[in-house]
Structure prediction request, 309 residues.
Amino acid sequence: MSYPLSPEMALFIEKTLSFSVDSLEIAAQRRAYSRMCEAFTPIRSRRLEVRNFTLAGVPVRAYRPHQLPLDQLAPCVVYLHGGGWVVGDLDSHDFLTAALAVDLNAVVIAVDYRLAPEHPFPAGFGDCLAVWHALQIQAQRLDIDPHRIAIAGDSAGGNLAAAVCLALRDSGERQPVGQVLVYPGLGGSDDLPSRSECSDAPLLSTADLTFYRQLYLKDDERSPYAMPLNASDFRGLAPAFIAVAQFDPLRDDGLCYERALREAGVMTEFDPGMGLVHGSLRGKGQVPEVDTLYQRLVKALLGFLRSSL
Prediction:
């Protein structure tokens, strides 16, 4: 199948694929993914204080802009990286988490949750939820406003962000001020149109999707915390910005989730990601249509963080 991509997107895909390996060995895939990520990661802004520590025993990285006022608690975004629940770490998404901290003038906390297949569901989800709870308790010690924390993630991270919101709602706890889900995998059915229309899409095929999902889920596909589209009730969840990629087998997961939230009375904003492929946020600064998505993402997060003032 051919996909009408811009020249800039085609170049981004070509560069990304140049780091791929044929091996199905997880360690080899992780090494290749790290090399690819490093090639797309710019020098970090000097306007940030960056430190690594743990929350609830989970490694995290906090980005704090120097220009944040010292006399007031800061807004915050908890960021959950993508990578099919199998690859990715604090470094893989530094290109995005560092930029968000500067552009939002907010603290960004990236979470290094455990990965499958060594740690299948619910390990990674449990790590993200534990970090959220620890952040609520320790927010003031970290100079963060516990009432102004949003959650965001791309791909598998979007899945985890949505799952955290569901778990908090189910236990009667306060929601994030907003949830940002970028080309998330949410457990849509195999007969969704995007699965066949984009079966061989660049950077993520339907076969890839099945492979990663099997590693993460093992036997538990029914839990809404594993696959949020399994939830029977979508009321009372955080307002959402959901962005998908046009040429992505996961496109319709985000489409279905946005509709489910909206029909349940949740405020939503949807970005159809015209011309985008899965994982293309990494093309920020190189692909105009990715820059458009990034600008909308920043605007949505600013809206969430300011709405709680």
